[in-house]
Specification:
The protein is built from six helices and twelve strands. It is an alpha/beta fold. It has two domains: 47 residues, no CATH class; 140 residues, Rossmann fold (3-Layer(aba) Sandwich). α3 crosses α4.
């Protein structure tokens, strides 16, 4: 563990607003937050789209964003109580390692596995472990349904870890405040650096982009316009 550098700044609410504005600015600057007419993997349409990997390709941007996440893990005495930072594949791998570096602790990741019945869960591989009693910071990039965070919680519980906080860069729902274990039903604190509500629409008259005749893009696949 390392000591937190002494910083003086605004109060919590003002700081949260400043952080959210900074995260939005970073996403916009690199073209990761776009306005237009988009087809999502679900088949639904949206008028705004977030492509996290446009941000994660820039080390300096990632370092700054992870500093904002790491700041949540410092105690008032200036020493972090976190023992390990964990993230889900894929984007969470990058974030977990950089947040861990800034906190001076271990950074690990969990991979998704699919059972024979098609259900998915998370698993620690490659010799990674969470030791009983370790305080865990869970990080991720963008929350859409919250499924990736929910999948991570049983893994932490089964290892005997103590989930200190789940924190993400962006919450697309505007509603993230907690994450509930599907096994123990324990509720843990969760928060986002930048929270916004991004509605989605069925294709057709319900969709503003369709109604306006805007070209349709599928940026999560080829990035090309859809005929």
């Amino acid at each position: 563990m390392i000591d937190q550098p002494i910083r003086e700044g605004p109060g919590p609410e003002q700081e949260d607003a400043q952080n959210a504005a900074r995260v939005e600015a970073i996403f916009r600057d690199v073209g990761a937050y776009r306005d237009g007419h988009f087809k999502l993997k679900s088949g639904r349409h949206a008028d705004r789209y977030i492509e996290k990997f446009q941000v994660l390709q820039w080390p300096a941007r990632v370092t700054e964003l992870c500093r904002l996440m790491a700041d949540r893990a410092w105690s008032p005495g200036g020493v972090t109580a976190i023992d390990v930072v964990i993230g889900p594949t894929t984007g969470g791998v990058i974030l977990a390692y950089e947040v861990a570096r800034q906190l001076g602790v271990r950074g690990i990741f969990a991979e998704q596995i699919t059972a024979a019945d098609g259900t998915t869960s998370r698993e620690l591989r490659r010799g990674f472990e969470i030791r009983p009693g370790e305080k865990v910071l869970l990080v991720d990039d963008v929350v859409t349904t919250g499924a990736s965070l929910v999948e991570m919680v049983p893994l932490i519980e089964q290892a005997g870890g103590e989930l200190f906080l789940a924190i993400v860069l962006v919450d697309r729902t505007g509603e993230l405040s907690s994450v509930e274990s599907p096994v123990t039903h324990q509720v843990y604190s969760a928060e986002a650096l930048w929270s916004l509500s991004l509605p989605t629409y069925e294709a057709g008259d319900e969709c503003p982009g369709c109604a306006a005749g805007l070209p349709l893009e599928a940026p999560g696949s080829s990035g090309l316009s859809v005929p």
